[in-house]
Each structure stands twice: as C-alpha cells, then as structure tokens.
Amino acid sequence: MSEAVTLKEWLDNHHITYSLRKDVLVIPGFGRCLIQENYDHIFKQNKDGEAVFNSIENISYLLADDITYIVFPFGCRWFYVDIRKDLLDLQFQILRYVGDSPVFEHKCEFYPLGIHSGYELLNGSGLLKDWCAKTKFLGYNGLSVADRNTMAASLDLQQSATEKGIKYCFGYSLTVNIGKDKVGVKIYSATQQGFKNMLRIQKTIAVDNIETKEINLIDFLNLADGNTLVFDKWSGHWLTDNKGILQDFITAFSGWVFFQVDTTEYRADRIDSTLLQSQKAYFDNFYLGDLEYYMNIRPVLIQDVYYLDKEDWKTKIILNKIDTGAAHEQSHNQYLKTIDELYNEFRSLFSDRYDDDVFYDMCESTADIIENATAAYDLSDNYAPKYDMTPQEQAKYGNTLNMFHQLIEEGFKKLVPEGEEERYRKRVEYEKYVIESTDNIDYFLIQRDELNWAQENGILTGIGRGSAGGCLLLYLMGITFIDPLKYDLIFERFLLPERAGLVPDKVTIMAEEIQSSDYFELAFENGKILLLDKDAELVVNRNGEQLIVYADELQEGDDIQFDNCDLLHTLPNILQYENSIHNQKN
C-alpha cells in the first residue's frame, strides 16, 4: 500500500468490525474512538515546553463521553492512541487486530504453520507478539513459526503464544541433501524428544555444515523421532520421481509425512509456473480420490508468510535487497490470510475434481500437526551452566560458594587501596548480595576460568568489556582490570537488583545461627526440617494478606517469603545440616 487510504478502506482491509457515527468510530470489543483526520501536527508543546500528542479535542470531554481512543492517519497507515494514559507517555499503535474477531463464511480447524518471523534475518519480518495477535484476531487457535535454518524464534513463540492463550508448536525449514538432489522440507516437533532432535538438526546445519547449510539424508532420518515431516511445495516432482525411497521417510517419522500446498501467487511467471507444476505433479501422482493418498502422504495447507499484512509486501523486498542485492521469490500475497481468502485461492487454482472436502482436509492436516504437539521449554528453572570444580579446588574451597567468597577476599587484599577498605567493603557486600541472589556465582567462576585458560595459553585478552567494567567483584576476581570505584562506575549498569526480585523490607532474612532450647521445627515438603527460635519473625502471605508473625504462630498454608539469596544458598545448607540431626518429619 503505497498511498494513504481512507479509514473505511483501512478498516475493511484489516477485517475490523465497526460502525461510524460522524466523527466517532465504534469498534465492538475495543471501544469508542475519535476520528482525527484533519490536523496540522501530531505533536504540540504544552505549557512546560514538552512535546505531547496534539489532540484537537479536549481530552476530559472525550473521556466524559466514553471516548477512550483517538485514531488518525500517518503516512500510509492508521494509528490510535489510548487517551486514558498520560499525554507525555502515549504510545502510537497501528490500528489493527483490535475488537471482536470477524465472522467468516468458511469455518474449519486451520492453523497457520508457515510463519517466517523477524528472526529469519533479512527475509522474514514481524514481532512474535504481533503474529500471535493477528492469529488470534482472525479466529485461529494457534500457529507455528517455520523459519529457515534458525530456531531463534522458538522461546519467543512459546511465551507470546502462551500470553495470548493460543496453541503453538516449533517448526523449522531446511534443506536435505539426498545424493545429487537437494530437497526442501519443514519439520514440526510433536514431542520433547522431537524438539531435542530438532535442536540437533539445527546444530548440524548451523555448526557442522556451516558452508552448505544442509543435512545429509542419513543424519536427518536418524533425528526424525518425535517430529512431523512436510515435504515443501517445490518438491512435487522429486516425490514423484523417487517413490522408491519414501518408505524410509515414512518409517523414520512414524507415518507423519505430508506435502505442503501453498496457493500463493508470485509476481514472476517463471516462479509461479514452477510452483503450480510442482503441486500438480504431487496431486496427479499421489491423489487417489475420496481423500485417499498414495502411501498416505497427505497434503497440508501451509502458506509461507513473511509479513503480517498485505500492505507490508515491500518489507521482504527491502530486506532481501539488503541481504543479496536482489529480492527472493517476490509476491504481494505472502501475508497471514483469513480462512475465506485461503478458500478463494484454493478454488481459483483447483479443478472440479478436487471438491471443497479436499480444502477442508488440507486445513485439518494443520490441526493434526499442532494440536497434539507437547514440546516446550521448561521455564520453571535456571538452566545456566554450572561450574565444575577441579579436585584441587574442591580440596581448597569445598564448594563453589566458598570459592567465590575466598577469591573475592584474595582480590580484596591485593587490589583495594590502603585506607579505602571500608568504602570498598560496602560495595563488595552489596554486589555479592545481588550476584548471589540472581544465582550468578557459577557464571562468574566460568568467566574467570575461561580468562585464566586464555592467558595461560598465550591468547590475548582485553581489560574488560561494556557494563562489566562497573562490577567491583569482576575486578577483584581478575576477570576485568578496571577499578570501578576509581572511575565512579555504577554496578547497576551491569545488573539491576530488581532483576533478582529483591525487596528487602518484604521478605524474611535469615540471621546468624543462635543457641536456643526453645525452638520451632519447620517441616518442608521435601522432608527437610529447619529449626527456628520461637521468637524468630517471618514474613508470610496468609489468605492473600502479607503478615509478620513469630515462628510459633505459623499456620498451615502460610507462604513464607524468604529472601532469594537465602533460598539459593543459606537455606539448602542449613536444611541439609538439620536433616542429618532430625530424621523424622513433624
């Protein structure tokens, strides 16, 4: 879309349900919006000289009339702002994917499985949160990203889809080297094992075969377990000419083998013809009639989409030209379409031999692929690498926590200027608390180990990089060579305490051990026991209310708010010690 469009055209193009009442736009499920079409400037200065959004109407009057948004054109798009927010903090949002989902003529289970996101650099585009927003807005119940040669989008996909309450599965586009042939495929992880195998395939392509960016047939088949295979839309002739080896794929993928159908029209006749001939070859040789297919290799409707909306078609061309100087397989239709648009494309390409049931069957194949997919990242734990102590280090320090503390003390004695000990000690204790609370001890030890190995093997190292220069502990451990206190560098640029969830006045802080005969036994779910003096004060959440109670006032169901540093380091050691004394659970 190279020129500005009217508001009505914009709303219709984006399938937004609406009604117009003079200068007010009403979007069910979203709200009432003032149409601000004629204005001189988007911003104006307030009385303090600050730039604020230039509303042509009094905001308080609009809010009193239940108008909460202003919509306005800018460039070739329409935007909106939420005027309930501070005028200094208004965010411009593109007017799309808002309000009630539109109603379409055709209804079936379809999931877009061919999304190419911005993680497919210089080819795909769009943020995952926007792909998920449009997917849900169009009434689809889930999606998959099938970026080529990268799985960088996978975690973002899981988080964005989960936030929107829609289904997802991990996809991946790649090339398999089969003898003299190079065959394009997509795979979708169905199980956790499949996801692990997909990661191994990615490693083979991106690391082991970096020059060709391919995987050979044997390696590919050996990593098939738990994944679904889709031969891509260009492979129709290859499938027809190589039926003899297809059983190997069917066996390796436990029968989960499909052929991709894509009804997108390309601008170049040569490309368009090649695509249509490939898909015709598949249907001529594999379709047996009555929704039966040779070797049960079924078609699945997967459109490769590289930009969110139709007007974004130039995005892919610009990205491709930055990459190689030329655009790849240009099309103005590689956007996420409605089910009615998909049906109309199907009907325009397929003869009467292929009735509507074929279309619905191809849509249902997308559901077969994604609905039972269970692969996911486990986000309940920190999977950062752990430092492996050498036997000598174990003998000297005992554990990584003690090693961390002693290395800091060794550096403190060597590097802190005389007479400055108190100032440096205050900074050390502050940084230690944050680093321990964020569970970064092993990270520090690993960095130190890598640096020492490089120096011992004649590899040049720098004095420090980026925000690391603000961390005194890194300096004391010999990882950086910049004294941050000498140059007034702040630790918070390296790591904000808030990232550890640190709220010292709202958590229980463990004190030093005391001798007490009047104690309370606190039993944990894992069977370990903590001994607390009866007068120990604990912060607890009880029935949604935060309270400070004595140990002997604890009730069943109380959620004790322990400090994160204590949870990670202090409590495990105490509990282990106490458990060795008390072998029974109270």
- Which assembly state applies to the chains in this document? single chain
| pLDDT < 50 runs, ≥5 residues | none
Query: Hey, roughly how much beta strand do the residues contain?
Result: 15-25%
Global mean pLDDT: 91
Gyration radius (Cα, Å) is 31 Å
Basic shape: globular
Helix content: 25-40%
Judged by helices, strands and strand pairing, the structural class is alpha+beta
Distance between the termini: 71 Å
How many helical stretches? 18
* Major sheet characteristics: 7 strands, mixed
Work out the number of β strands.
22
Detailed description of the structure:
The mean pLDDT is about 90. Helix 3 (about 130-135) runs parallel beside helix 4 and helix 15 crosses helix 18. Strand 10 (about 165-180) and strand 11 (about 180-190) form a beta hairpin. The chain is built from 18 helices and 22 strands. The protein starts with 6 loop residues before the first helix and ends in a 5-residue tail after the last helix. With about 575 residues, the protein is α+β, with helices and mostly antiparallel strands. Helices cover about 35% and strands about 20% of the residues. It has helices at about 5-15, 60-65, 130-135, 155-165, 190-210, 215-220, 235-240, 245-250, 270-285, 315-325, 340-350, 355-370, 390-395, 400-415, 420-435, 440-455, 470-475, 565-580, and strands at about 20, 25, 30-35, 45, 50-55, 65-75, 75-80, 95, 140-145, 165-180, 180-190, 215, 225-230, 255-260, 285-290, 290-295, 300, 520-525, 530-535, 535-540, 545-550, 560.
